[in-house]
Write a structure and sequence with these properties.
single chain, 268 residues, alpha/beta, 6-stranded mixed beta sheet, 4-stranded antiparallel beta sheet, 10 helices, 10 strands, binds adenosine-5'-diphosphate, binds magnesium ion
Length: 268
Amino acid sequence: MPIILQNTSFTYAINTPFQKKALENINLEINKGELWLLVGHTGSGKTTLMSLMNGLLLPQEGNVIVEGMSTKDKKVNIKEIRKKIGIVFQYPESQFFQPTIKDEIIFAPKNFNYEINEEMLKYYLELVNLPESYLEKNPFELSGGEMRKVAIISVLSYNPDYIIFDEPTVGLDYTTKKSIFNLIKELLNLGKTVILSTHWINEFVSLKPNILMLKNGEISFKGEFDDFALLDDKVLLEAGIVFDEKLKLYRCALKKGKIDFAQKISLL
Ligand SMILES: Nc1ncnc2c1ncn2[C@@H]1O[C@H](COP(=O)(O)OP(=O)(O)O)[C@@H](O)[C@H]1O
Ligand SMILES: [Mg+2]
């Protein structure tokens, strides 16, 4: 069952001088196993959209329906929704508060009464290239990239079906970015649904993601990656998309109708 947003609008600080409409009439359906990239300039509404998906924010207009449960429905246990949808917020490592990495990772599953599987824990550590011995370390002894990895594993630990990443690669070096990308690829292989906001889209080309582009709180593009890649340079630059050589070449091949060549580039 999908996540559905129906005519969803959200306004911050309603009825105050700081009132700000962040999202306007969003319609979206995200199905199991899909990869969605949320793109758009800073302030376009990406974080707000993600917070609506797990009921952290409730829409004033329209509905957000997670596997048949509306986040606004008072009869729905919001914990059920939060357990299904894990969010890795921006700079998640700033929220660390446990004495060891292991405690940090198992905090959320405990909260959801979920029995954490040691095998899975080790598997995730291995996936992001962190040694098992790290489990007993203090989280603040880690480098920035390692902290980000631990924060991600702490969300994966309660086995949510949908995993939302808010700009997961910001401020990371290339190697760490790559290992987060590999982790996301593996999550998709496991059948998870992944939604992430990012300006760094080139790495995801080979995964044929769906794209949702926001502009001033409204959808300015929704659809398949290849259609998105064919949009004007101006539109993509406006949305803050980072162009690297791979993305440039890929778009060039697509524009010339050389689909096989584009495919090869995407796998580079
Ligand atoms: N807590 C808040 N209070 C008031 N306005 C907010 C708050 N959070 C975000 N906004 C505003 O809502 C709009 C969308 O913000 P956000 O969802 O954070 O966008 P993005 O994640 O794309 O940068 C922006 O204009 C932002 O200034
Ligand atoms: Mg944001």
